[in-house]
Design brief:
The chain starts with 6 loop residues before the first helix and ends with a helix. With 254 residues, the chain is an alpha+beta fold. The longest helix is centred in the C-terminal third of the chain and has 41 residues. It is elongated. It has a 4-stranded mixed beta sheet with strand order 1-4-3-2. The chain has 10 helices and 4 strands. Helix 1 crosses helix 2 and helix 9 crosses helix 10.
Length: 254
C-alpha cells in the first residue's frame, strides 16, 4: 500500500526543487531557514526573560519593575530634595547640632569615632574639624561656636545664648556687620575648612535654601562698609607717607 505524503514532506520536496532551479544546494537553503527560525525563537525567549526580570509572579496579577532603574531614580530624587536651587546642600539645625562639641567632653572624646566639627556663620556651614579640639574642643576658644550659628558673637565676643540670639540685622553700625562678614570670608577662603551647605529655616536661608532678604541686606551693608574702611586705610597710609617725606626733606635742609 502506497504511503500518503505528509505536508512536511511535500514542503521539503518543494524547497529542494526550488533550490535545484536556483542552482543552489538544498541543504544550505534548508539550514538557513531552520537557523533563522531558531535564532528568532531564542531572541524572543531572551527578551521575554529580560522583560520579566523583577516581576512578582506570586499572584495572578503580574507586576514588573526594573529594580536598578527604580533605585537610581529614587536616589536621584532624594539628592535633588536635599539641594538648594543653586546646588548647595540643605542642612537643618538638628544636623548642625549633631556636629557640635559639648563643653563637658574630653578632648579625646571630641573627635572620637570620626566625629566631625561643624559651625555656621551667616547661615553657611563649614566643617572645621581640621582646627582640632584646641580651638573647638571643650576648652577651646571657639567651643561655643561648634554645632550652631552664633554669627553675632564673632563681633561681640559674648559667647552665650544671649549673644548668639542678638539681632545683628538691627545693628546701626555697619562696621560691626563688616566684622562678622570678614569672619565669614575667613572660613570661606580657609585652606582646610570645608564648606558643607546652607542652614535652612534660619534668618539667613529659607526652607528651600534660598538666601533671605535679611542676609542680603547684612552682606550688602557689610560690603559697603568694607569699601569705606579700605578707603580710609589707604588715605591714612598716604598721609603717613606724606608726613615722613616732609620730615626727611626738613632734615636735609638743616
Amino acid at each position: 500500500m502506497r504511503r500518503k505524503a505528509t505536508p512536511l514532506a511535500t514542503l521539503l520536496w518543494l524547497i529542494i526543487a526550488a533550490s535545484i532551479l536556483n542552482d543552489q544546494p538544498s541543504s544550505i537553503k534548508l539550514m538557513t531557514v531552520v537557523s533563522a527560525e531558531e535564532a528568532s525563537e531564542s531572541e524572543d525567549a531572551t527578551n521575554t526573560a529580560s522583560s520579566n526580570e523583577g516581576c512578582n509572579n506570586d499572584n495572578d496579577d503580574q507586576t514588573c519593575t526594573n529594580p536598578s532603574t527604580t533605585n537610581d531614580d529614587s536616589e536621584e530624587a532624594k539628592t535633588q530634595q536635599q539641594l538648594s536651587p543653586s546646588g548647595e546642600r540643605l542642612i537643618t539645625s538638628t544636623e548642625l547640632a549633631s556636629h557640635g562639641i559639648k563643653s563637658t567632653e574630653s578632648k579625646e572624646a571630641a573627635t572620637a569615632g570620626g566625629h566631625t566639627i561643624w559651625l555656621s556663620i551667616l547661615g553657611r556651614v563649614y566643617d572645621v574639624t581640621s582646627g582640632g579640639p584646641s580651638y573647638y574642643g571643650p576648652n577651646g576658644s571657639y567651643n561655643f561656636y561648634s554645632g550652631r550659628d552664633a554669627s553675632p558673637c564673632f563681633h561681640s565676643g559674648q559667647n552665650n545664648e544671649e549673644g548668639a540670639s542678638a539681632k545683628l540685622e538691627e545693628w546701626e553700625d555697619d562696621k560691626h556687620l563688616m566684622s562678622v562678614y570678614d569672619w565669614s570670608l575667613f572660613y570661606e577662603k580657609h585652606e582646610t575648612y570645608e564648606f558643607m551647605g546652607v542652614l535652612v529655616n534660619s534668618k539667613y536661608y529659607d526652607e528651600n535654601g534660598e538666601e533671605t532678604e535679611v542676609r542680603k541686606d547684612i552682606v550688602d551693608r557689610a560690603s559697603r562698609a568694607k569699601v569705606i574702611v579700605e578707603k580710609e586705610k589707604e588715605e591714612r597710609k598716604k598721609a603717613r607717607l606724606e608726613k615722613r617725606r616732609a620730615e626727611r626733606e626738613k632734615n636735609m635742609k638743616k
